[in-house]
């Protein structure tokens, strides 16, 4: 087993419009651990996070409806991510619903730690940075 310090954890952070304020707030609460990670994000979510926390290492992909969800899905297939934090809006129809479903499906297929809520996102951060029993690091 390699140690966590062997490489920087890579997190994808994504939120639908109704939950963008929530993900920015969550990032603020997890700023210390996230500072040691490489963050990938869909376009609009990533810009908001970058604006709020310029000290974070954030790579912005395409906006979700323009292919950003699919870019993150491709990263999952290529084992380029360690976790997906995806604050989904369960109450609104989405024009790119198929992309949303494909993304969560791929996270499941590849057994990638995925959180759609703050409490689970906290558990993932704690789990990945706590005592390591996970051979992915
Ligand atoms: O739509 C999204 C995820 O499905 C998020 O995309 P944005 O961060 O570009 O709004």
From TrEMBL:
Active-site residues annotated for this sequence: 69
Pfam families associated with the record: MGS (PF02142)
GO cellular component, one term: cytosol
UniProt GO MF annotations: methylglyoxal synthase activity
Keywords: Lyase
Boundaries of every MGS-like domain copy: 2-137
One of the protein's GO biological processes: methylglyoxal biosynthetic process
Assigned EC number: 4.2.3.3
Top-rank taxon, per record: Bacteria
Catalytic activity: dihydroxyacetone phosphate = methylglyoxal + phosphate
Stored CDD domains: MGS (cd01422)
Residues annotated for substrate binding in this entry: 16, 20, 42-45, 63-64, 96
Keyword Lyase in record: yes
Secretion signal span: none
PANTHER family, A to Z: METHYLGLYOXAL SYNTHASE
Family: Belongs to the methylglyoxal synthase family.
Function as written in the Swiss-Prot or TrEMBL entry: Catalyzes the formation of methylglyoxal from dihydroxyacetone phosphate.
Name of the protein in question: Methylglyoxal synthase
Organism listed in the record: Notoacmeibacter marinus
Upper lineage: Bacteria, Pseudomonadati, Pseudomonadota, Alphaproteobacteria, Hyphomicrobiales
Gene assigned in the entry: mgsA
């Amino acid at each position: 087993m390699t140690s966590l310090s062997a490489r920087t954890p890579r997190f994808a952070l994504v939120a639908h419009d109704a939950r963008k304020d929530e993900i920015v707030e969550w990032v603020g609460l997890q700023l210390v651990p996230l500072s040691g990670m490489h963050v990938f994000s869909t376009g609009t979510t990533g810009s908001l996070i970058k604006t709020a926390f310029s000290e974070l290492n954030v790579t912005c992909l395409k906006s979700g409806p323009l292919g950003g969800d699919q870019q993150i899905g491709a990263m999952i297939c290529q084992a380029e991510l360690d976790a997906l934090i995806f604050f989904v809006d369960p109450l609104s129809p989405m024009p790119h619903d198929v992309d949303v479903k494909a993304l969560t499906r791929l996270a499941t297929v590849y057994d990638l730690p995925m959180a759609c809520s703050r409490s689970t996102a906290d558990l993932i951060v704690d789990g990945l940075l706590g005592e390591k029993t996970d051979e992915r690091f």
